[in-house]
Amino acid sequence: MPPMPFPVLVLRDTVVVLILIVLGGLVAAIPYGTAMPDPRVIQIFQAVFGTVGFGAGAWMARSRRPLRLTLAMLGVWLLAGVPVALGGADPVWWLFLLPVLAVMATLGGGLALLFEKFARD
After folding, report:
1. Would you say residue 15 has pLDDT above 90?
2. Using 50, 70 and 90 to split pLDDT, how confident is the model at 27?
3. What Rg value do the Cα atoms of the chain yield, rounded?
4. Nearest to 21 by CA among 46, 56, 4
5. CA atoms within 13 Å, Cβ hemisphere of 45
6. Nearest to residue 58, comparing CAs of 86, 23, 96, 20?
7. 69: which of 17, 39, 97, 116 lies 20 to 30 Å off by Cα?
8. Distances in Å between the alpha carbon of 33 and those of 26, 28, 30, 44, 68?
9. Cα 66 to Cα 4, 18, 57, 79, 100, distances in angstroms
């Protein structure tokens, strides 16, 4: 089977991160039941799950890992901008999200390297 093209790999990594971010928000809201969940708790869970998503994407990347993580991060950021474009979210929040995603991608990449190191030892 021939290797997948690079844009498909980046799209796969972006989708993995987005799914885990959404899953983190859902997991954080479970204990609240029908009550209004605390937004800070949801954001913390989304950040942790998103970091794990970036780690999974970095672990699946065998070559050009920094480029793939950067492009996946930009893809997540652009998709998070859809509510801003539709007028349902604050543009300042969207601009602040970019450095947060950069930290998540960096930590996820480091997590993948750590897993690889432990797997070799």
Report:
1. yes
2. very high
3. 15
4. 46
5. 18
6. 20
7. 39
8. 11, 10, 6, 18, 37
9. 18, 18, 11, 20, 16
For 13, residues 6+ apart whose C-beta sits below 8 A from its C-beta are: 54, 57, 60, 61, 68, 69, 71, 72, 75
Amino acid at site 92: V
**Model's pTM, two decimal places?**
0.90
Report the Cα 22 to chain-centroid distance in Å. 9
In angstroms, rounded to a whole number, what is the distance separating the alpha carbons of residues 93 and 95? 6
Q: Which two tokens stand for residue 117?
A: 């190191």
DSSP letters, 17-53, are HHHHHHHHHHHHHGGGTTSPPPHHHHHHHHHHHHHHH
